[in-house]
Design brief:
Elements lengths: L9 E5 L4 H12 L3 E6 L2 H13 L3 E6 L5 H15 L4 E4 L4 E2 L4 E2 L12 H29 L2 E6 L2 H5 L5 H21 L4 E8 L4 H9 L1 H10 L8 H13 L10 E4 L8
Parallel strand pairs: 1-2, 1-4, 2-3, 4-7, 7-8, 8-9
Antiparallel strand pairs: 5-6
The structure holds NADP nicotinamide-adenine-dinucleotide phosphate.
Amino acid sequence: MEARTLDGKVAIVTGAGRGIGRGMALALAREGAKVVVASRTRSTVDAVADEIRAEGGEAIGVACDVGQRDQVYACVQQAVDTYGTVHIMISNAQGFGTEAAPRASTVFMAVEDTDEDEWEYTFRTGATASLWFMKAVFPHMKAQKYGKIINFASSSGQIGFEGNTCYNATKEAIRAISRTAAREWGQHGINVNIINPALETRAFDAWKTARPDFVEALKEKIPMRRLGDPERDAGPLAVFLSGPGSDYITGSTFMLEGGMHTLP
Ligand SMILES: NC(=O)c1ccc[n+]([C@@H]2O[C@H](COP(=O)([O-])OP(=O)(O)OC[C@H]3O[C@@H](n4cnc5c(N)ncnc54)[C@H](OP(=O)(O)O)[C@@H]3O)[C@@H](O)[C@H]2O)c1
């Protein structure tokens, strides 16, 4: 068999039970990575791991709520116990709503009405979870002088999209943490980059229900005139940012949006 870009590499992908996470997990496995498929629902992570194995790849499903510190560290430990180390860490999961009443996506809430439980939960499952994973994988990446960390943010945060205070804040915090780690950890052979996507997924469908006019108008605003697809569009970027092609790129935000925001 021909050598593949990620042969011998071990990846953790959170939020991989569906959507963008699933698309990236499949793509990494097709390039030879052993993948830890992580999200809360046992049946979905097992189904994606089965899908990977059915294609001849290697994967395990791990039920992990990224909002729980002990589960984050346990997930990384399980990757190390199973495959020896972690080379690629993709923090893609993001919680919405509150712990008691989680939602599939954001709903409009004016800044002055910001709910503090929602602030805490959105932040914990976003920025704090990304930081926990980064701290947990760092010793392994530093020791092997190889690490590719990909964190997920959103152009909503960059532009301060109305009604999204909690989400915008956690996503911009993720970018700030990522840039800081990029500067500190480059010397150890660790790259830290960010993806800002606009892709058709369940989170997007939930948003479509909440704001149908806005989402329809959005397609017209995207220069490529379509919403991206998790496998076709996120898969190749995740492989690139996980492999040797991106060795000299760190601290950067990749706009996977079909040109929707061409920010300077
Ligand atoms: N789709 C877009 O256009 C878009 C735009 C901007 C940013 N993003 C970002 O891209 C990432 C992926 O979004 P998506 O559209 O693929 O979402 P999605 O289709 O809703 O999938 C989310 C995944 O995350 C998991 N998840 C949710 N909360 C979790 C938690 N607390 N712990 C562990 N896993 C959890 C879900 O599985 P379980 O429910 O089983 O846990 C699911 O597998 C998110 O960070 C999102 O904010 C997406």
